[in-house]
Amino acid sequence: MYNLFLHDALANEAKQKLFKLVAAADNQLIIIPVEKDNQGRTVAEVMAYGKGEAEISFQEELLKSGLAKTRKSGVECPNNLAFEKAADIAKASHIGVWK
């Protein structure tokens, strides 16, 4: 139902956050394709194992940091609820796109 998109003004900060997440995961990512959106692009969840083998969702991390927002896309993502909660954290904290 939702797609993640980056805000232009925060693109460099989001890029640096992603680099740090990838480095922390020793460049070992888990990419789970969900489906294609209405423009033919593959929508996927991107994760990695963090310390203690806990999964880290890159989408959740960007949303919690206020570096990304969701928008309706017609794709039903299995973790929509977690993404909404992550965005709510950023909104409540007035950070990133929610300043």
The largest sheet, given as strand count, sense and whether it forms a barrel, is:
3 strands, antiparallel
Q: Give the oligomeric state.
A: single chain
Could you list the spans in which at least 5 consecutive residues all have pLDDT below 50?
none
Q: Helix amount, in percent?
A: 25-40%
Number of strands: 5
Strand order of the largest sheet: 2-3-4
- Work out the radius of gyration: 13 Å
Proportion of β residues? 25-35%
General shape: globular
The N- and C-terminal alpha carbons lie at a distance of 25 Å
Number of helices: 3
Give an account of the 3D structure:
With 99 residues, the chain is of the alpha+beta class. Helix content is 35%, strand content 28%. It contains 3 helices and 5 strands, in the order βαβββαβα. It has helices spanning 11-24, 58-64, 80-93; strands spanning 2-6, 30-36, 42-49, 55-57, 68-72. Strands 2-3-4 form a 3-stranded antiparallel beta sheet. Strands 1-5 form a two-stranded antiparallel ribbon. A hairpin with a 5-residue loop joins strand 2 (30-36) and strand 3. Helix 2 (58-64) runs parallel beside helix 3. The two termini are 25 Å apart.
